[in-house]
Amino acid sequence: MGLEENIQVVCQDFLEADLSEATVIYMYLLPEALVKLKTKLESCFAQKTRVIISHHFSIPWWKGEEFLNSHIYFRQ
């Protein structure tokens, strides 16, 4: 598809990861882990991030999430 140049996959502790350059964030985390990331994720929208996708679990404190199917929650 030719997207290899535009995609970077980072595998590291999500509390330590630098997400400031991310434009899309895809997560597969339990609700307890999502709560730990609240401040970090909210600050991402103040920067470059356009889309945050949580696989399977909704992001509890965000209203206006779009429910794409039985397992994907989308916030833009």
Automatic annotation (TrEMBL):
Asked if DNA-binding is a keyword of the record, the answer is no
The domain of life for this entry's organism is Eukaryota
Q: Which InterPro entries match?
A: FAM173A/B (IPR026170), SAM-dependent_MTases_sf (IPR029063)
Keywords, A to Z?
Methyltransferase, S-adenosyl-L-methionine, Transferase
Q: Which GO terms describe its biological process?
A: methylation
Q: Name one GO molecular function term.
A: protein-lysine N-methyltransferase activity
Similarity comment: family membership: Belongs to the ANT/ATPSC lysine N-methyltransferase family.
Spell out the protein name for this chain: Uncharacterized protein
- What organism does this protein naturally occur in? Stentor coeruleus
